[in-house]
Design a protein that fits this description.
nine-stranded antiparallel beta sheet, mainly beta, 2 helices, 11 strands
Length: about 130
């Protein structure tokens, strides 16, 4: 029986640019996916972009201790983050996904005043024999 690998992807849109992001397999990521589409107005600090979410997420997952550019995370189940620099948090952050081209996304988000929408991707299944 073949193993089916389900690659969960979403679209990250800012202005007229769209990026693909991978979504991880954990309870917080599952709940994040259930809330799509999510539109936020990001603020920026030295490590990335942050925005409060309209609704708190209640899923539980192991706290992540380090982040790299492109990581998408939820902080304290109520704030959405996209990192553009390496980061070691003191708060409770859980990775929910990753964007492949964070340096390009960083410039696009700045050009569009921090407005970003996370939305559904056309599902694709890849079977591994």
């Amino acid at each position: 029986m073949p193993i089916v690998d389900i690659m969960r992807k979403i679209l990250v849109k800012s202005g007229c640019k769209t990026f693909e992001a991978e979504v991880y397999d954990n309870r917080v990521a599952d709940e994040f996916m259930e809330r799509l589409p999510i539109s936020v107005q990001f603020g920026k600090d030295a490590t990335g972009y942050f925005s409060p979410m309209d609704e708190k997420l209640y899923g539980r997952a192991k706290k992540d201790r380090s982040f790299t550019a492109g990581d998408i995370a939820i902080c304290n189940n109520s704030s959405l983050s996209v990192f553009v620099e390496q980061f070691a948090p003191k708060k409770h952050f859980v990775k929910v996904g990753h964007i492949a081209n964070p340096e390009i996304l960083d410039k696009i988000i700045e050009m569009n005043s921090g407005e970003v929408t996370f939305d559904f991707f056309d599902e694709k299944l890849s079977a591994i024999a």
